[in-house]
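Attaching the record inline, Q. Sequence:
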Amino acid sequence: MRRAHFAGKLNSAAKKIAIPILASRALYRRVTTMKATTLLMLTAAPVLAGTAPTPVPAITPAPSSYWLTPTLDIRARYEFADIDGFDPSHAFTIRERLGLKTAAWNGFSAFIEGEFTQSIVDDYSAGPTNLANANVAGVDPFDPRNSTIFDPDNNELNQLYGQYAGFDTTVKLGRQRIIYDNAAFVGNVGWRQNEQTYDALSIANKSIPGLTLNYAFVNQVNRIFGADASGFFENVPGEVHLLNASYAGIQGVTLGGYIYLMDFDEIEGWDNNTYGVSAKAKALGLTWYGELAYQEDAGAANDDEGLYAHFFAMKEFGKHALTVGIEHLDAGVQTPLATVHAFNGFADATDASRIDGSQPGLTDTYVTYAMPIFCGIKWANSVHFFGDNAISDDLGFGIDSVLTKKFDDHFTGIFKLGYHDSNDSIYRTTTRASMELNYAF
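Structure, as predicted:
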């Protein structure tokens, strides 16, 4: 009896366990059948549609770089200039830079670039009309009655150099672009259609973390007036040593120093020795910049000496920025290799006196406010107040306005307006306006 009763309970328990197991197996078989059916349908669908199944893409190695890579830089610009005492000028010019660069081979590479400028509207003077005895042969167009816009018709070799890069050092030999710091003393005058380049040996070394050492020996300066210019405005040979260093190994701080020894064959008045230091840092919510330089052999007779100083503070408010600064040149201080367009306002009224040191002292107190407006356009406005060596005599004031729109990685549009009011000082009242479109590839 007991055995039968126990067997009955065991049989009942077995049924309770077996039923879920059998149900699970049935469910498993159903799911497996559904998966197989779905997989079969997915596999057969392309065949039924008349196409073969998409193969798994093979992993292929990236193509090797080309041995020669072309470069292209085109700028079309309309510029208006009205200098007191001269007729207004209109220039519509197009400049193309076409180049080829080689791939590096064991650190060696090369680059060649031609530069070609055409004046479509040539109602302007590309030569210096404010110098009575200037020899401007070869500068076209030239009209002594017109305001100057220094963009002559020109075809020339812009850059041609061989390069070696290795051991944290880059060496270039040949015609090349050189820009140091903010281009206050050494630059390429990139605003003009025909840029300033250098026949030089240049060396850049970054062996010490945070430290960049630059040295260049220049034996000719290729100026903005073109390959055919002669006299005072042709290319200038010389023996120029440029030593520039910067150190960014301290967080938020960049320190700089430079020694520029310039000795020119044809223009002795440009000779000078300049020694300078600079510092840029972020503190108290501001960006601070300071630069101080001492120049020997300054002035037209190379018998002066003087100081150069530049200080500014910038406060950023999101995408807005306010900058307040002051730049000062003692009388006779000259910057013959500088990108002078970047200083003292876009009217360019003081450019010539900065280059040759004929200014009687120049102090520029300025305020700049930059902000975005709409459609990705950036707008910057500046005011300048000019004084002499002692910052006492009023040398006029200036106003700048610049609109910049970057359409994509290749196209950029720029509108500039610059006005300089001389207040009857040594400078001429000047108005300049320009619209341009840049394409780079």
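Residues 1-56 have pLDDT under 50 and may be disordered. The CA atoms of residues 221 and 236 lie 5 Å apart.

More tomorrow.
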